[in-house]
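Customer escalation, tier 2.

The customer says the design service returned an amino acid string that "doesn't look like it belongs to this structure." They asked us to rerun it and document both sides in this ticket. The original structure tokens are below, unchanged.
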């Protein structure tokens, strides 16, 4: 089953946690010093915030799936929408390890389709590379790849 994902960069994490906890009527599912996530069932959404970026607002959108088969189906749709799909296998970001596909929509908004493999104790991989296997990470505060590197986006 698919779950819509939104990641918002915020200035004040504590103030934002209070706001969204009140708005959603529940505390975050994950709460770290620099990150919080709500896994809501009504509406079915994975809503995350972090204060790692200097730019506030929507960092990226996404579709979370429960299996590799669902991820492959979403990948087919992404490949039909654009030839600029970036693959991340076992990507470490937002305290989770996931297999992902990244694209940018015509408005320039980054979208990820991902299947979470498990949790990790750190926000993510801090060092960036520009290889095809591990695309360079942006400085956005999240793990959005740098589009345009390696000729893939």
């Amino acid at each position: 089953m698919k779950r819509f994902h939104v990641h918002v960069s915020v200035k004040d994490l504590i103030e934002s946690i209070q706001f969204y906890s009140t708005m959603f009527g529940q505390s975050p599912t994950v709460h770290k010093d620099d990150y919080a996530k709500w896994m809501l069932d009504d509406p079915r959404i994975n809503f995350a915030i972090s204060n790692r970026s200097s730019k506030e607002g929507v960092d990226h959108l996404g579709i979370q799936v429960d299996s590799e088969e669902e991820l492959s189906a979403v990948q087919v749709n992404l490949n039909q929408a654009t030839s600029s799909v970036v693959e991340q296998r076992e990507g470490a970001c937002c305290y989770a390890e996931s297999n992902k596909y990244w694209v940018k929509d015509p408005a320039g908004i980054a979208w990820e389709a991902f299947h979470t493999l498990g949790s990790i104790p750190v926000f993510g991989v801090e060092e960036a590379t520009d290889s095809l296997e591990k695309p360079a990470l942006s400085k956005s505060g999240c793990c959005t790849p740098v589009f345009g590197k390696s000729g893939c986006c």
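Tier 2 assessment: The sequence is consistent with the input. Confidence is low (pLDDT under 50) at residues 127-139, 149-153. Residues 3-119 form a domain with the 2,3-Dihydroxybiphenyl 1,2-Dioxygenase; domain 1 fold (CATH 3.10.180.10). Sent an explanation to the customer and offered a walkthrough call.
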